[in-house]
Protein 1
Amino acid sequence: MKILVTGGTTFVSKFAAQYFVEKGNAVSVLNRGSREQVKGVTLIKSDRTEIKDILRNKHFDLILDVTAYTQEHVKALLDSGVTFDDYILISSSAVYPETNTQPFSEEQTCGFNSVWGDYGTNKLEAEQCLLENVENAYILRPPYFYGVYENLYREAFPFDCAMNDRTFYLPQNGEMKLQFFNVADLCHFVEILVEKHPQNRIFNVGNKDIVTVKEWVELCYKVAGKEVRFVNVEKSVPQRDYFCFYDYEYVLDVSKMSELMSETLPLEQGLNEEFLWYKDNLDSVYNRKPYIEYINENLEKK
């Protein structure tokens, strides 16, 4: 296929660009050219809000839009003169209000989520803009992505704690639930959509298996070859000061995805792959949060 990936230099979009290159596809990436590009891609150098005529008369079998965060992002691409057979937008589970009944399903009403704020409503507007203009587009709503090239200080935090033999400070009793989706599974599901063209246009995507915070941390330590010691932190301590997830538990219904792709990468295997990459690429994680500093100054002294 001829594929256009928006972004292509960080985490999800970088992994996708490399994945589809390695599968023998002709992959172009749309980004500002400010970072190193994946080997084998064709760079289309542009800010996506200022595309002008750079894509006019270009045709792609697939546009994989990873970096659309607003309706303006989608509109700029659609107005660029580019043509395509399939368009897949990576949206977010943040489009579901936290007041909805869980697990969140694709049929539920979408709207403002107080945890995610404008991020969720902007993603919803991007979805709506796309579907109003491209009836046969696909929308994917993931929970937390993880895997190789992760650039957020998420798995890297318990990895750091494990590598330094630190006690882990756990929110309350660690029973808050988390749902993940590996970037390799995302790419596999994209291939399935392009091959099968299912009638359904909106899919929640993610692992069927849900884990608790405690189980997730234990797996992160395990793949680092360490055993974890826990200290429970009371609810009165702001969770985001010392931990890498909000105090917000939600679960997606991924049954529609599972009808097409019944298996996803086991979480331990995916975390192991991410850890092996991370320990050789410590500088690839941006905007490290001062969780450890907060713990040292405010929790260990108690």
Note: The chain has a mean pLDDT of 97.
Protein 2
Amino acid sequence: MANEKQTSTRRKFLGGAAVAGVATVAMPQVSRAQTVTLKMQTSWPATDIFTEMANQYITRVNEMAGGRLKIDLLHGGAVVHPFQVLDGVHGGQIDAAHTVTVYWYGKHKAASLFGTGPVFGFNANEGLGWIYAGGGKELFDELQTQIMKLNVKSFFSMPMPTQPLGWFKKPVTKAEDLKGLKYRTVGLAADLFQAMGTSVAQLPGGEIVPAMERGVIDAFEFNNPTSDRRFGAQNVAKNYMLGSHHQATEYFEIMFNRTKFNSLPKEHQAVLQYAAEAASSASEWLGMNQYSKDLQELMDREKVNVLRTPQSVFDAQIKAWDGLIEGLAKDPFMKKVMDSQKAWVRRVVFYNMMNATDYKGAYNHHFPNTLKL
């Protein structure tokens, strides 16, 4: 009798487990039937490496969400102008955007402090550290929600390398060579170069080479060797000056319509946030590989004259930044942001610089006569 009771009990247990197993399998099928699809427009042409980086983010979202949340990619200009994605996301014409804050600094100059701001001594990785661990994201949320009243929720991704001084028809040998040039840049960098005597035009990447061909601009910068090479910078100028203080740090802003974001389940919100952090590393590694390859190709195949920006330009830029900072600090919020950055830099960069090994010495030992520094 005891054995019969045990057998009966075991059958009931296994039967219940089987039912539970069926329920467990069925639940995701119900969830998948309620898939949410978000339309994300970039600020980039389809051929730009930044589009590849946007796809790195989208792939991570789509795979981590298991098909229950999807992002569809739209290229720059598909719905709104590349510089107007903030308006598109805020107004709901698009659900999301892959862009940079500097493209909407005309609405509030503090946007440029979260990428392409003054040079206090931190690189982009350290700057992204400030955003995620040093109070930056809280200040950015204050700018969006309290000051600008934007219906937008944003995450940051990809610490970009220092942006080159750019492309010139003649090499820049001293700071005075910049005076009088018609030069393309964006954000606070536009204010910086105007203070240095240039005439600035703010153009999206796809409009730069045509403007150079028509004589609208004499020189320009965009971002990196790969983007520059793909849109044909080497066909309109042959002198590529590396290193500058005008945009020493920048990051992608991945923005969502806040109402749409808040309507998603918490696990989907988490996927959108943490995919930005995951894509940040993937995009940085992609950039390391591709930017360095394209720089070599520009030198070897395209016969571009790659030069280091002279020290006098760096010195003039620092002096010009000092003047701009004085004016920016009159705005209480902008002063608060810059004070926060400087507190982070004083502590974090002190440690990093004091602790870093002699990378330049090691490089010169193994690759003598390679660096032009």
Note: Residues 329 and 339 are 9 Å apart (CA to CA).
Protein 3
Amino acid sequence: MISNDSISAIGRAAHDVGVGALIGGNLFARVGMHPALRQVSDARERGSATNTAWRRYGAVNALALAAVLVGWGGARLDEASARMLSRRERKLALAKDGAVVAVAITGLAASAAGMRFARMEPQGRVPLADGSTPAAEASTAERRSKRFLNAVGAANLVSAIVLAGVNAALSQAGFRRPPVRRLLRRRY
């Protein structure tokens, strides 16, 4: 049988890997893939490549978001419940609650907007100047949709970075509490 500590460690690891995957995928697209797509000569091929890549990474994003939600949700039921935390940790846990909700909302919104954007043309061939910028021949609706998708994607990236920062602060707060107080807090 797996111990509670092992289950907690697995949940925390999954949560942290999920946050990393959300940040990493978003940064890779913005800094690497989207600008590199300028080298594809056809605007509609750029759109198809962008939408295909995001559709494939969507499975990673979905698993990552599930890991974040399940990992933190499980922790909040026990080891990160208010009764187990110091005053400082309770404040950080509430901040983490907000960051997790923001990551979930912006992540789901980006996913829905991305799927909608990709369906605007057959095979996702919305004309793009690069992975982030609509081409001149894109329709008004396509340009508007891409602007919204870029904005909600940026909000998701910022939310995930904030979540990573709150995670670090919460972990540090736990380490700063003397081990005896942590033990007594759990027993009473």
Note: The chain has a mean pLDDT of 91.
Protein 4
Amino acid sequence: MKTRATSFLLAALAVVSFVLPALAAPSDDMPEETPAASTEIEEVHSAVRLDGEPVDTVEYEIRGGVCYVTVRSFVSMMDPEAMVEEENGVVCVNASTVTQVIPLYPEEQLPAEQTVFQDPAALDAESVSPGMGEDPAASEPADPAQEGAGQQDLLGPDGVQNSDPAQGPEGVEPVQNLDVVPADVITADLDLQAAAGDAYFVANGRYLYVKDGLIDLNGAVAAPVRQLAQVFNLTVDYDGENDLVLLNRQEGAEPYLASGDQTYDGDTMYWLSRIINAESGNQSLEGKIAVGNVVMNRVHNPRFPDNIEDVLFQKNQFTPAISGSIYREPNWESVVAAKLVLDGAQVMPDALFFNAAGLRSYASRTRTYVTTIGSHAFYK
């Protein structure tokens, strides 16, 4: 009995010795065990590039195919010294571009009208007599070999030719030879306000439309990257293959967008705000923008006059121009709508006609219906 049990045990051990190595060896159908290093989380890179370089400090989120960026992080990317204040869903930004200017001569030593020296080649040779105002003896070179050397001298603003190009007017030393502190001159300013939930934000008096509204992103006001790029005169492209937003500075561009005073034409603003008010002063902001779009679409369409006043007073076109209600002072939102339209806000990009919703008119009978906003129906 003991002999049989021993033989059985030895046979079992032999089977196990063959099975265990087979279980330990990798199968052709089963991949080898993944190394521990492959379980590490893949590093996430920023989807925003500025002049080709990734920007990891920008807070952004893609919503409905639109890249929203927090105002504070975008401004900090462009100007770390900018003042950004944010509270209760409202953000305010103040920034300046400062340039150091070193005057050529100390201001206290120059007459108010005096300027830097000019190259005599830039002046009319006939308007300046060589040696004008100098001692005749001093105007003759001491050494004949030096004759003609004075042609390289510089002229002072009063036309006096100087014997030493490094010297200014008599008794005035150039700044390079003095201990002069450079002056900081502010050459551009930015003033921006934005509030979560609004359909636009304001930068340097310019009204930039945000169709789906500004949003709250992790407690900060965020706007579409395209509108924020406009504030800093950046170009925007999208690399769909790599899901990258590409921002680039424009060579020679101003640091911030031009102010509203420089941009909005006074005559166009006057008439556009008034027709918006007369036609849709009691409508939503979207309805006001739509009316403004129709007017400006006509200005840019060859079938209509090429200026806003003639468009509005074209015979039998706009009732307020006929009744005189167009002259009423516009309400604030009508003025805002006019500025938004002039800064590119589009609700009705193709519409050329509108009338009271449900009214049978020339447009309703002959034109292609687009949509109804508030109490107005719009047609192409």
Note: The chain has three domains: 48-99+185-257, 108-181, 264-379.
